[in-house]
Amino acid sequence: MRSLSRCCGKLVRMVAAGVALALAAAPGVSGQSASDGENWPKFRGLNAGVIPDDVALPETWSRSENVVWNVDVPGQGWSSPIVWDDLIFVTAVLSDEPRQIPGQDLIPEPGQEGAPVTSVDGIATADPLATPYTWMLYAIEFESGRIRWERALRTGIPANPKHPKNTYASETPVTDGEFIYVFHANAGLFAVDFNGEIAWSREVNVPNAPPGSETATRIVPGLTLDPDYFVGIGQAASPALHDGRIFIAADHEARSWFFAAFSTQTGEELWHVHEAKTEEAYGWSSPFVWENELRSEVVILGNNHVRSFGMDGERLWEIEGLSVSTTPTPIAAGGLLYVSSGFPSMLFRPVYAIRPGASGDISLGPGETSNSHVVWFHGDAGTYMPSGLVYDGLFYGLYTQGFMTAHDARSGEEVYGRVRIARGTGGFTTSPWAYNGKVFAMSEDGDTYVIRAGPEYELLGVNSLEEMVNATPAVVRGSLIIRTVSSLWRIAKSFLTTSRREGVEAPRWIERQPRTARPGQPGAGRGPPASRLW
Length: 534
Description:
This protein is mostly beta strands. The chain is 4% helix and 35% strand.
């Protein structure tokens, strides 16, 4: 099957009509409205990557095993897929850029020689091409993998450069079941209905820092990096959604930090916070809405601080102290909030566990590891790219260089220190997920390492799709929805065996049809031809 897929680049693996009809009769699939628990409306779903145990969920897969369908997704993008009812939503940008390759951001830790390996040529930032880019939203049918509609959101030249590993469509969309809210920093903010029509759109601009602002360098001495080394890497923080508000953060600029809330009904800005940076601090962490036992608040990491705001923009509490670069998104579990920040070349890579109800400045003093609201703290356990995972009482850290750690989620006590998952990989960017007593960690090479959850590390197996992956999967209704560098996969347990046992026709290869909308469909006559990027 692998050779067939390579020889037939314009073929798509689909389920046959009989399979789709049989599955559509099941609860929560096409033709019916799934409950919130059967949807995956945002980055990492409703429970930060923890999925209820389900015997239907697969634990082994490959390019041919447990594959329901595989569909080409034109363009580039590391936004994660989201799912609502019978549709999967994926964003991408069409351009003439080459596709990415693994291993473009492997940064050495203190004591290792050499500057960060940020690309195969040592290039940390690159300007956009002079040819047009078109930002796209695709609606893909959950059962069949067919693209139901596609919407061109904007065509133009990006205003900013980016890292070769990044894309201009790395921010994951979010949905409330009425609209899909898409934010890409170089395209804007959009509300799109479930028929593919744009309800509203607006630009989101980061204000400039006041004239004369100076930013002190924090890069570890000995690394010969420019103070503005991270400038030009691009945006990647996804929007968050709550109670009629969309939250957007920008911490990737050299001199400015920006955080704002917008109306879901009109796109109007409701409030914003803007600060000049006084010291080097950059981030790509997404806002996180923390609905705890006391209140709802939105937590954001940026400008060397952890901050919490009320829904109307009032500042609730803050902690000073992050590494120079912060990407992981906060998570909540068991009544606590977990925050991680870990640029590999820095010695200071903190993890904080925080209880609800704080106010004001709750930063730790010198030598402190806890206070009234910081339950526990580790100064060197923060991860670089992947967000944390709390599963069955343990806090797991997945490190880009291929290590994993486990700590007691309540006390912070180390359960096991750094254990090597794999050697010689392109690194780990995707955030881990867990179900059925197992933790899953996917490398940039498309290899998913299956690890037994619990106090002793045990590698159970490796599943490979043989394609680069930087997007965190959606896991919903017994299926994994995995985005690779070129396509979208739906993985489900024992699909072929079950289908044959029930007398349903197995999937077949059918010729891929052009993606241009048919007359009467949303997008007909508008936007660029839906041709392949490569």
